[in-house]
Structure formats: structure tokens, C-alpha cells
Design brief:
mainly beta; 7 helices; 37 strands; 8% helix
């Protein structure tokens, strides 16, 4: 308890100290020596570049400097440092997840849309699996990450429900090659490489990585028999030793020539799935589950005239999943998107985005015992527009937008957005935002035909209405803000297991949830060397029956980071993530309790060309990284099936040593 209070106190001092420091300065310090933190620009909220303070959304930016300071083994590790983002997991298919503001009301990551350079990378068989991308994307090619906390369907369509994560990759400004290698305990390693080439208008970047975390040897308890159709657990409790793998490759290629662009990525992750109540502990047999996802996008930019620009994109995503033991599932699905987006500025104070898209998705799933259980396709058309108008330049801006979407066999629907951004004083903005978002039913939710679950062609899209009210300060040394959010989710697609309307577990629009909370965050460059980060989240939820805490995410959480980066080449950074305890309904009878935890990571880099008189290539750095410094295992509730059990999600401490060399 004392550690918890101390940690929350550090965050409070950091965030509110930021506010006091800002208040104490009638005019921000403008000494040239202190102008080292660039005022950030973002592109995700409006599809064009604008200042963070002007963007119609609650947005956090992970800069290149933060990526280099704090490091991270996987994309999931990096995203867990973002305010209000929480790493988690569920049973079986989506084993690696990120929830936004505690929204884990589904047993997949379907409420968060993932973008690569603004293009959606979706999984459509189940509706949102991101495990392979979160675990194996080549993080060495990331320039920055923009995260919208809140809906984004007006511009991005289905799945931009509770959050949007946009991974923005590096561009080739010069020719160079960088190689990185780290090794750790129990044959753990992380190898990465990237190359950049530029010749006139031609730019090529390529990156690849393969990482393997230590196999996690742990004890898993389960029941000796289980009926998955009725969720009736019976039998004796059995314990077994298991080795959970965590490894996979990831590659990225980006090519730009004048106005033409192409990018592609492939990610693969090998691990285990868990259904603790099932009758056999299939993980003991040696074969592992494999998630795969390929993605490609071709884009062309057209300058129609000085006030009108156009982007045309063709995007393709293919997802595969193979589970070797019960239910012995293999999936193969793909999505194709053709989109035209237009950007016009008819007058200085007015900016308009409008466009349209066609989406085609198809997928198939088979099991060993029942053959093909899902084989279907889906069309989707959409038209969208968003406009922002400065009532008074740099004082008040109005935002409005809507998307009209038509999903196959579902009526035309419209999702709106509206907002006001006001600057009472320099560097301070007040954002009042409203937005609606939707998630179209997945192929399985509509058409799966399996003994343990049934699809429902009458499923409607899920909906969410969200209001955000926030006050933010964005200066040269300091960024901070406080934001209140209120969301109402309706028509949530869940499996109806009451056996009153359907004779078997069947997907249906049966969920309705009120979700609200407060989030605070601060970022403070004390000087060029020291950086402090901090954030805190309180969230709570309630369903239509009055049940509270209907998400397996703690109501309270906090994060804090401190980094020292010397101009002479030494970087030492610590980042700590605290999640509070859960409601007693998530207590477990078997396996470790999914209680409160504090995960701290250490990242060190020593540039030997700067620290010594070495002169190796363009740079040689020695690396030292410790994941989970306190050696704290994390287990989460068995979300998606019977509560009373837990699933392993984060193993103990891993120490890595390695080097990076650039040519």
C-alpha cells in the first residue's frame, strides 16, 4: 500500500506540478536555450497535418525522442506507456491486446483501430485481432505514434470505436544501414535491422526484426472436463507445468517516388491460447498457435490546384490464425479498401476533408472436427466529410463532420462529429468534443455455424456516443492536460447464452454500457537532458442492468517515467506502470490472482563514439535493457468465458544486453 501511495504521489506531483509551473509563468519562457521541444503536429485526427492543440481529438504523441529514450521490446510494450492505454489479454484468439480507457467489454481488440501511416490494418473474421502486429511489428522503423483516445469513425469507419492508434514510419533522408542485436536469459533475443536509400525522388526504407522472449515456464490449473456449449465446468482440478512461447518475425517496406507511394508489412507471432476450463491441457504437447498478418497499400497524391489536394489509396490486409489443438481452428480472411480523400481550403479560415470508400471483406474458418464453420463475404460503402472553421483565428475553432455508411444487408447509417476548441490564453486550449462511432458485425458474428456458437445475420453495428471535455497546456518545455470523458455504448454484440431466445450460444446485440472517467497527463523537459512523464486514469462502467465494473480493467491506474539523455551519449530511462486491484467478482479459485501490479522497465544506451574516442561507422551503441525490473508476474481474468480463473499475460524479469551499429 505504501508503494502504491508513493507511486501515485509521484504522478500527482509531476502532473499537477506541471500545472502550477505553467500558472506561475505569466508568459512562457522564450530563452533560445529552452526551445528544444518541438511543438508537436499530428495528422490522425483530420487526415492532414495540424498542431496538436488544434486537432479535434484527445491525442497523445509518442515522439522519436521518447522511443529512443524508453525503448521497448514490442509495439505493445510501447503503447502501454501511453496515457489511458492498458495492456491485456483474453482467452483463446486475441492473446495480445491494448484497451483504451479501460474499454475491454469485448473478448477481442475490436474497439481499437490500428493504422499504419494512416491506412487501416483490420482483421475481419472475428472483428479486431491485433496480436501479431502488437508483438512483432518492426519497432525500429517507427518515427512516432499518434493515439486518439475516443471515437474516429467519421474519417476511419468501422472499428474506430474507443481509440485509434496510428503508427507513422521513418522516411529515407539519407543512405544508411542500422543493425541491432540483444540477448537475454533462457535464449531470449531481439534482432533488428533497417536500411534507408534515397536517390533524387526515389526513397526506400526497409526494416526487419525477429524477437524471442524467454519461454514462460509456469503452472496452469484447469478442470478435467468441460462442456463448452453450455459453459458447465465439472470434474477435478488438475495442475500441469507449461512452457508458453513468445516469438515472431516482422518486416516493413516503404517506397516513395514523387507522388506515388507503396508500403507493406508482414507480422507473425507464435504463442499459446488458453481455455482453462477445457478438458485437456493441449499446451503440453509442444505445437504452438500462430497468428499471421500481411498488409499492403498503394497510394497516389494529386495536387488538383493550390487549394485542392487528393489522395487515392488501395489497401489490402490478410489475416491468418492456426490453433493446433481444440478447437483446432484455422482461419484465413482478407479486406480490400479503395478510397479517395480530398482536402480543400476554399478560404483561409475553412478547411474541408471529404471522400468516399468501397470496402470488400471475405473470410473462411475451419475446424478439425466440424470442417468449414464460417465462409462469407461483406461489402461496405461510405461517404464522409469533416470541416473546421476558425471563428476567430487562434482563438476559437468549430469542427463538424459525418460519415454515411452502408454495410451489406444493413440499412444506411450516419455517424456525426462536432466540437469546439477555444484558446483562453496562449498555449492553453479547451476542447469540447462529441463523436459517434460504429463497428460493423464481423463475418463470424453474422455467419459462423459451430456447435459451440452460432452467428446471427440480424446483427446490427455496435454504436458508441462519446463526449470529451478537456483543458490542455502545450508549451516548449511542458505539456499537460486534464480530460473528462463519457461514453454510451449500445447494440454491443455478445454471445447470448441465456438459452431463452436461441437454442445455442448465439451472437446478438444485447449489450449496453455507460463508461466514464477522468484522465490526466503531463510531459516535462526539465532541460535538454532530463524528461519526466506521468499520467493517471480513473474509469468506471455500468451496464443496462445496473452491474458495475463490467470490464476486467482496474478502475485506477497511473504511469510515470524519468529519462536522462546526455549530449555525450549516455541514456538511462525508467518507466513504471501501475494498475490497481479489480472488483471482487474477478477473484479466482484457481491460478494466481489478477490483482494490482506495478511493472517497471529500464532502458540504457551508451553511444561509444561520443563517450570515447571510438569511431566505428556512423555510430556504435551498447545496449542494456531490463523488462519487468521487479520480477512481477501478471495474470488477468479469464475474460470471455467463466470467471473464477485467470490467464498468464506477463512473465517475470528479463535482462537483455546487446549492441547497435550504424553505417
Amino acid at each position: 500500500m505504501k508503494k502504491k501511495i508513493l507511486f501515485l504521489g509521484v504522478v500527482a506531483v509531476l502532473v499537477f506540478g506541471t500545472v502550477f509551473d505553467v500558472t506561475a509563468q505569466a508568459e512562457p519562457v522564450m530563452d533560445e536555450e529552452l526551445l528544444f521541444m518541438e511543438i508537436p503536429t499530428v495528422i490522425t485526427a483530420s487526415k492532414f497535418t495540424e498542431k496538436l492543440s488544434d486537432a479535434p481529438g484527445v491525442i497523445s504523441v509518442i515522439t522519436k525522442d521518447e522511443l529512443e529514450r524508453f525503448g521497448g521490446t514490442t509495439l505493445k510494450d510501447i503503447l502501454e506507456r501511453v496515457p489511458s492505454l492498458i495492456g491485456s489479454s483474453v482467452y483463446m484468439t486475441d492473446r495480445s491486446m491494448i484497451s483504451v480507457r479501460g474499454d475491454q467489454f469485448k473478448n477481442s481488440g475490436s474497439h481499437v483501430l490500428l493504422l499504419i501511416n494512416g491506412r487501416p490494418i483490420r482483421e475481419i473474421q472475428e472483428g479486431g485481432i491485433k496480436s501479431e502486429t502488437l508483438e512483432s511489428f518492426p519497432i525500429n522503423i517507427i518515427e512516432k505514434i499518434e493515439v486518439i483516445r475516443g471515437p474516429g469513425s467519421v474519417l476511419y469507419g468501422s472499428g474506430a470505436f474507443s481509440g485509434v492508434v496510428n503508427i507513422i514510419t521513418e522516411k529515407a533522408e539519407e543512405n544508411d544501414i542500422t543493425m541491432t542485436g540483444l540477448g537475454g536469459k533462457a535464449s531470449a533475443y531481439d534482432t533488428q535491422g533497417k536500411a534507408k536509400y534515397r536517390n533524387g525522388d526515389l526513397s526506400i526504407v526497409a526494416a526487419g526484426r525477429y524477437h524471442k522472449k524467454p519461454d514462460w515456464n509456469t503452472t496452469l490449473d484447469y478442470l478435467s472436463s468441460y462442456n463448452p456449449a453450455s459453459l458447465d465446468p465439472t470434474g477435478n482440478l488438475v495442475s500441469a507445468e507449461v512452457d508458453i512461447p513468445n516469438k515472431g518475425p516482422g518486416v516493413y517496406l516503404g517506397v516513395n517516388y514523387k507522388k506515388l507511394s507503396f508500403m507493406s508489412t508482414y507480422n507473425e507471432w507464435e504463442s499459446s491460447h488458453f481455455i482453462p476450463e477445457f478438458c485437456n491441457l493441449f499446451h503440453a504437447y509442444g505445437d504452438n498457435d500462430v497468428w499471421k498478418k500481411g498488409f499492403a497499400d498503394m497510394g497516389y497524391a494529386i495536387e488538383v490546384n493550390e487549394k485542392w489536394n487528393m489522395d487515392i489509396n488501395l489497401t489490402y490486409t490478410r489475416s491468418k490464425l492456426k490453433i493446433p489443438f481444440w478447437p483446432s481452428t484455422s482461419r484465413d480472411s482478407y479486406e480490400f479498401i479503395a478510397e479517395c480523400a480530398n482536402f480543400i481550403n476554399p478560404v483561409e479560415k475553412l478547411g474541408v476533408v471529404f471522400g468516399g470508400l468501397y470496402n470488400y471483406a471475405a473470410g473462411k474458418e475451419k475446424t478439425l472436427d466440424e470442417g468449414t464453420i464460417s465462409d462469407s463475404s461483406q461489402n461496405n460503402f461510405a461517404l464522409y466529410t469533416q470541416a473546421d472553421y476558425w471563428v476567430q483565428q487562434d482563438i476559437m475553432k468549430l469542427i463538424g463532420g459525418l460519415q454515411a455508411n452502408k454495410v451489406e444487408n444493413i440499412g444506411l447509417d450516419i455517424v456525426p462529429r462536432a466540437g469546439l476548441i477555444f484558446y483562453p490564453v496562449s498555449y492553453v486550449n479547451v476542447k469540447t468534443l462529441y463523436s459517434r462511432a460504429f463497428r460493423a458485425p464481423s463475418i463470424n458474428e453474422i455467419g459462423i455455424n459451430y456447435s459451440a456458437m452460432q452467428g446471427n445475420p440480424d446483427c446490427k453495428p455496435e454504436k458508441v456516443d462519446t463526449v470529451d471535455i478537456g483543458v490542455n497546456y502545450i508549451g516548449k518545455k511542458i505539456q499537460g492536460g486534464v480530460n473528462l470523458f463519457y461514453s454510451k455504448q449500445t447494440d454491443i454484440i455478445l454471445q447470448d447464452r441465456t438459452f431463452t431466445k436461441f437454442s445455442a450460444p448465439t451472437y446478438d446485440n444485447i449489450g449496453e454500457i455507460i463508461h466514464r472517467g477522468i484522465e490526466i497527463e503531463g510531459k516535462y523537459y526539465v532541460n535538454k537532458e532530463f524528461l519526466l512523464l506521468g499520467s493517471a486514469l480513473h474509469q468506471e462502467s455500468k451496464d443496462k442492468d445496473g452491474n458495475k465494473d463490467v470490464t476486467p480493467i482496474a478502475n485506477n491506474g497511473a504511469k510515470a517515467g524519468i529519462s536522462y539523455k546526455s549530449e555525450k551519449g549516455a541514456t538511462v530511462s525508467l518507466f513504471s506502470i501501475y494498475q490497481g486491484g479489480l472488483d471482487e467478482k474477478y477473484d479466482v479459485a484457481v491460478n494466481p490472482s489478477p490483482g494490482a501490479y506495478n511493472i517497471m522497465n529500464l532502458n540504457c544506451r551508451f553511444d561509444m563514439n561520443k563517450l570515447s574516442d571510438w569511431n566505428v561507422g556512423k555510430g556504435l551503441s551498447l545496449l542494456f535493457r531490463v523488462d519487468n525490473l521487479f520480477d512481477r508476474e501478471v495474470w488477468v481474468p479469464n475474460w470471455g468465458l467463466i470467471l473464477g480463473n485467470s490467464l498468464p499475460v506477463n512473465q517475470g524479469r528479463t535482462i537483455y544486453l546487446g549492441a547497435e551499429i550504424a553505417f
